[in-house]
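Fold it.
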Amino acid sequence: MSNRTYRRNTSKTITVNYNPLNNVDGVKLFFTVKSTKYDTSADDSTAIIKQDVVLTANTGVIDLNPNTVADTVEPGKYYFDMSVLDVAGEIYSIDSGVFTLTAGTTNREA
């Protein structure tokens, strides 16, 4: 479990290295941020951030940029999860925790 912080309207990358379980490589990384730890949304439509990242040699990059989070999302404490889909079709949570969204006074980009 870890903590992540992201300032809205900035750019940030998170490199993820997946250590395969049972020598099975990962295919895709699901990165999800929600206002609650748990919900029943089967398609994660309640997420404020939802990214699917293709893994290459068990490594992937999550790209957070000014288009990632809408300006209407209030700064505050959220929850994130990183799950990996492996070649066998199994999904494993590899990291989760608190995701803090911060913001500054200036929101315009140009």
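The radius of gyration is 15 Å.
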